[in-house]
Amino acid sequence: MTTDHIRATEPNERGDGEFDADGIVPVAGAARPSGLVLPRYRHDDPDTHPPMLFPDYGSTNLRAPKQPLALLPQRLTEVTGPLLGEGRLGELDHDLTRQHAGEPQGQRIIVHGRVLDGNGRPVPHTLVEIWQPNAAGRYRHANDNWPAPLDPNFTGVGRTLTDADGHYRFVTVQPGAYPWRNHPNAWRPAHIHFSLFGQAFTQRLVTQMYFPGDPLFFQDPVFNSVRDPLARERLISRYDHSVTEPEWALGFEFDIVLRGREATPFEDGEDDD
Amino acid sequence: MTEHPDLTPTFGTGAAVSTDPTPVAGVALDPTPSLGSTPSQTVGPYLHIGLLWPDGPDVVPAGTPGAISIRGQVFDGAGAVVPDALVETWQADPDGRFDHPDDPRGARPAAVPGFRGFGRSATDADGRYEIRTVKPGALPDADGETEAPHLNLSIFARGLLHRLVTRLYFPDEEAANGTDPVLAAVDPARRATLVARPEPDGFRFDIHLQGPDETVFFAV
Q: Which stretches does UniProt call biased (Basic and acidic residues) (chain B) (predicted)?
């Protein structure tokens, strides 16, 4: 869509600064005119996301890369991404309480919120995928066999698209906490997994939504792997009485922020500063 | 939020563009509010219930002429296979185009019917993933050069608190790979980790999360 892009007629001056995030290697080269002007997505503050290696979470030890990450400049493959639509959705994918013959056990909840970019703009018509254990804390998964009951009326999988305003809404049940073997008497706080695509490869995000006031936070290395306490708070949903439905379900609000764009477009190839 | 002084835009400060102040549609030119991103968290061991689609590995439908398989294994730092990873792929169509509004050449559907550009495959008990696709075309680069045909890969797994990003290049594109700006910036000793190996019906691309053959991973 050429109307969305400014065509540069002269090469831009090239920033020659060194990328200062931890261990990221810049790509060398010299800019020449091309006319390919692409949006560019801001890099997050390094403490927003967990480090790859977080020894308290034992599974990172053999899986986190040891070498520093190289910087991938944002070119065509990075600023585009799959725009997945209605074809991915079943009629009841947004309501995890109506996917079986009967109702699942547990506290019925409504989880809603907006998907925004870092500039505060809604991300419309984007696919949101969720999965979770049942009210007893057990996933319907062959490898989850701790002694809590399965619920024949609960799969624990949901999908929806955000609307034009970036809003999404699921009906489900409150997931239970569950034990794991990471450390003695380890329990995961109740959470719902979220997967988001946004509009570009750069915006892809998989995260977990937690519930306010969970007493298990203190001992959970996954939650605590996020070093910035303000960023960590962004993983916790908010009880939302305005969405709670009388004699029906409790409401929780969880807004999700994907990386925002620079205010000004850049000529492709200017990513190495 | 982020303070990267070096990210100060140079665009708009040069004489060449100052004559055209037309704002980009939907993008304010004044300072924009900056919200902190939601942090990443691991997919955990049970991603399969939420993220697998029956047609996940089908970047193109079965029976597509010229379709290739891209397959490989994921290994951890002890050399053990990773049986609970998810590999996602994103790529241009065979003409090097994206059906996406931010492709400045214009969004248009691929000539290949049913081409989705996106694939996802979980690894099995042997750490194997596989997708079916067609080879992407080369991409224009701002420097007037081209990016060699490539796929972007995201790897998710228990023990990965954030996705890992890498690129797959093709071994039969030696000339294009030789001038690819991303490959050129990678330590030559590790460049081979980004190049797939030929197989009779496609290509093999193993991913080593750690160890002497550690794959090159990117911050994007």
A: 97-106
